[in-house]
Specification:
Layout lengths: L1 H65 L6 H26 L24 H27 L8 H26 L4 H24 L7 E3 L3 H26 L16 H28 L5 H23 L4 H23 L2 E3 H16 L1
Antiparallel strand pairs: 1-2
């Protein structure tokens, strides 16, 4: 009996040891399996990270290869698109104002509460105002394109890159001013500021267009100092003419909405105050043209362009004043103001040229003189 009990105890002990050994084997197997799975996951993650990194490097290299390493046709096209759209948005903004659609979208940044786009209840006024907002988006896309295309040249052509960034920031600023204009019920002073800011954007875009055709570096006068002084004086009178035109328009009948306020100034008196510097601009431009032709200055063609724009602007201004301010002529007068600002800016910019170009011109002149 004791022997039997002893055998059973030995069998139980051997069984327990076997179970313990198998349990340890199972635990080790599970640990090994878990470790292998973790290592497998790590290998997959490392492989995925390597693939993403390699893909990023390939894409970045392709983008870098695609971006211009020198000013090329793409940059020039985008610069011109920036200038043209900056002028066009003044036309669409004028359409908003002259059709009484200034509050066609009564909220901002949405068009109407709960909707980014105009609803059928907003009618044609909502469509016109929303179309003008879409123009802002288009100008923003062009500004971003300019910054991207000039990214690789941001050190070599810092002037171009800075102008592109300013235009991009200007789009955002103008959008905010537009929102304030709507939220203040078309305050005439804010509307006028909005228009003046658009003119400044046109001038900056003109500078960008001018610079993309020239090398970087120091610049020197290519006209006599007296002519340069007269050109700057003319630009000041042009600016004064535009400012007085903005104040005159803000005091006139086209407010953008039937309930929008006006400045309260005497519109008839302001018309004269607007016309006088306009005529002074014309006289100064004629003097500039005579001096440039006589001296065979390189800016004479641009001065001719400036004079033509001024003559057309004066004719349109006289017609709108004598025909009761028809909306079409008022809108054309606004767009021509932008063209005038661009033309005057171009004249001032071409008073100087990069010294590398002026040196070449001087060398050519001396060679002709010796021959």
């Amino acid at each position: 009996m004791d022997v039997a009990i002893l055998q059973v105890d030995q069998w139980d002990s051997r069984a327990c040891r076997s179970i313990h050994i198998w349990t340890r084997h199972d635990e080790n197997a599970r640990v090994i399996s878990t470790t292998e799975r973790a290592e497998s996951v790590n290998r997959k993650n490392q492989g995925l990270s390597s693939a993403i990194g390699a893909g990023y490097r390939v894409v970045s290299q392709k983008i870098r290869y695609w971006l211009p390493s020198a000013v090329d046709r793409r940059i020039r096209v985008v610069a011109w698109l920036s200038l043209v759209t900056e002028i066009l948005i003044v036309g669409t903004g004028g359409a908003v104002r002259l059709t009484g659609s200034g509050l066609g979208c009564p909220t901002w940044p949405t068009c109407v509460a709960g909707s980014l786009v105009p609803t059928p209840e907003m009618g044609l006024h909502g469509v016109i105002e929303f179309g003008n907002r879409l123009m802002t988006g288009l100008i923003g896309i062009i500004a971003i394109a300019a910054v991207v295309l000039l990214w690789r040249l941001r050190t070599e052509r810092k002037d171009l890159f800075t102008l592109a960034v300013i235009l991009g920031v200007g789009v955002l600023a103008q959008a905010l001013v537009g929102g304030v204009t709507v939220l203040t019920g078309l305050n005439p002073f804010i509307v006028g500021f909005h228009f003046m800011a658009s003119l400044i954007m046109v001038c900056i875009a003109t500078v960008l267009v001018h610079r993309v055709y020239l090398p970087s570096g120091p610049r020197a006068l290519v006209v006599p100092v007296g002519f340069a002084g007269l050109a700057h004086a003319t630009s000041f009178v042009v600016a004064l003419t535009v400012v007085m035109g903005v104040v005159t328009t803000a005091s006139g009948p086209h407010s953008g909405d039937a309930e929008a306020g006006r400045t309260g100034f005497n519109a008839e008196l302001l018309e004269h105050l607007h016309a006088w510097p306009g005529y002074a601009t014309l006289v100064l431009t004629i003097v500039l043209l005579a001096a440039s032709v006589r001296g065979k200055l390189p800016v004479r063609k641009l001065v001719v362009t400036l004079l033509v724009v001024e003559l057309v602007q004066i004719v349109v201004g006289l017609l709108q004043a004598n025909l009761g301010l028809p909306p079409v002529l008022v809108g054309l007068h606004m767009v021509l103001a932008c063209v005038l600002a661009a033309a005057m800016t171009a004249v001032v910019l071409n008073l100087k040229a990069p010294t590398t170009l002026t040196d070449r011109v001087s060398e050519t002149t001396h060679e002709h003189a010796r021959s």
